């Protein structure tokens, strides 16, 4: 048999399935559903590839059992649009969306084209992907309002500027920005007064990218740590900090408890550093070499000690 469609992985519930021996399958076991070209449905456990059986038939299975001799349904194929497939020169493209009528909470999918089937409901959109952003938003909003009559909720799933050309024009990297600056493309050229200001935007772009990479690759690894008195100070001001702090993957410490795994910008005014032990250690006490005047009793004691030779 040929598998026409599949679902899963899903998880079993109590009393929902049993195996070939009539033993009930325990809950939370992952399984797959396979719909075959002969309109039969097969359930398979992922862990053992064992065929299992559902106690209560689904709406899809009942539909197949009612019409076993009818012409086969032609299921639609899901479409995944890419940049190279988009006809930006034409400004518009035809898009088709579908939902499964038999599902309680149907998922809206984009398909290549409508097919002959009673299981799915289709809608057609003339989608604007080129031209001005304002015109595209107005046109696509009207298309979605009309489509709402057939597939409710479609306007909440598809943004009005989805696949618009403007979404792909911002894909510029730092290398392209550097190539636009004559300072980097022609290093031997003299730097004039007109060229000098161009360095600042490039350096700002580099700083923005470095900061972005730091945010993306520097998650919080330890949270809700305690900074006790005499241990931590602010890196900028040098003032002492006492309270909760967290650590990032690169070792930076910042104030506040933090949320584990979160990436955020490292604000210099919130970075704290440990107090230098050599700076915080107590000073070595000085020895007073100046003798204080002795009292009469002390002088007499010293005299007796000096005269005592330890003999008999």
User: What value does the Rg take, in angstroms?
Assistant: 38 Å
Percentage of residues assigned to helices: 10-25%
Largest sheet: 5 strands, antiparallel
Quickly give the structural class.
alpha+beta
Give the overall silhouette: flat
How many beta-strand runs?
A: 12
Strand order of the largest sheet: 1-3-4-5-2
Beta-strand portion reads 25-35%
Mean pLDDT: 77
* Cα-to-Cα separation, first versus last residue: 122 Å
Helix and strand sequence? EEEEEHEEEHHHHHHEEEEHH
Can you tell me the residue ranges where pLDDT is under 50 for at least 5 consecutive residues?
Answer: 279-292, 303-307
Question: Count of helical segments?
Answer: 9
Tally of discrete structural domains: 4
Describe what you observe in this structure.
- The protein has 312 residues and is an alpha+beta fold.
- It folds into 4 domains: 3-66, no CATH class; 83-166, no CATH class; 173-203, no CATH class; 216-278, no CATH class.
- It has 9 helices and 12 strands.
- The protein has helices spanning 59-66, 133-147, 154-157, 166-169, 174-179, 182-185, 199-216, 277-280, 296-307, and strands spanning 3-11, 17-18, 30-36, 41-45, 51-54, 92-100, 109-111, 120-128, 220-234, 240-248, 253-255, 271-274.
- Strands 1-3-4-5-2 form a 5-stranded antiparallel β-sheet, with no helix packed on it. It has a 4-stranded antiparallel β-barrel with strand order 9-10-11-12.
- A hairpin with a 5-residue loop joins strand 4 and strand 5 (51-54).
- It starts with a strand and ends in a 5-residue tail after the last helix.
